[in-house]
Amino acid sequence: MARARPLAGRRQELLLVDGFAGPGRYLGGEPGSPIVMIDAFLEHQDRAAIERTVLRYVFIESHRGRFEHLVGELERLKSALPGNVKIVPIQGEYGDVMETLLADSSERVPTFAFLDPFGYADTHLTLTSEILKFPRCEVLIYIPTHHIARFVSEPDVANALDLLYGGREWENSIDMPFDERLPLLKELFHRALGRHADFVRSFEIITSAGGGYDLFFATKNELGLKKMKEAMWKIDPVNGRAFRFQPEDPQLHLFDAEPDTLPLRHALRMRFDLEPFTVAEAERFVALETDFIEDRHLKRATLAPLEAEGRLQVQRPASARKGSWPASTVLRFAW
Question: Is pLDDT above 90 for 106?
Fold first, then answer.
């Protein structure tokens, strides 16, 4: 998501960090996150436009056996990599290595850090906030929220949760029933990241066994936010917020899934109430303050039906054609 920084000689550099890289490939042959990250570039539709950018992949793994397996997997990939891809596997603790990387340069190279630990004790909010101090750095963090919600009252997890949340607010969830505790723990982590980033979004992964975890994305960049939201809606075309593992059902593919824009209607009504607002103001609100995408879900999917139902008063510029939505169009809810 982070954008590249110009370097001397008109080159650019982008740092991509996998903080808990694992073995690279698992026993069943499934690719791990380092392979997925590299393949994302090799298979990118605009790869040619990126080839003037130096992509420096840093893969951090503390376990010796997993690290050695990772190095072997990366060696097998080297012959397929173009010259602008640099791979740096490092055996060590994520916190120690990342602190060194952050201290390495006073002018931070644009960075995307993926943090996917096997547990959550090593995900320190303090270190994450250090990454986010730089304006062109972004993080994607795996949090096993269902696991945390089940064991939040256990004394031996208190220190890890203090580090994860950057404080003790998580204790407020201990006496709650599970169905209230889980959303509170998610909201508290969202707020904790929001103290260090302008924009935070989460995406839930629900397992076939009924458990799950969440991916939290944090950035200071509006374009980075938009690109992540597009990726989320590609996975979940109805709500853009979750993926559920389930058996393949041919009937699910008979019709294209339609987005549920009812929450967007309510969000717009709550934001603007009965006051006039422009299409441009609505677009910015949708882009930065909702889970929806302004150029996909706002005009035809939401504003047009509201106008047809008589719930939205629309004052278009005199030169605008019927049914169009120029940015200066003035809108007002009629209910």
Answer: no
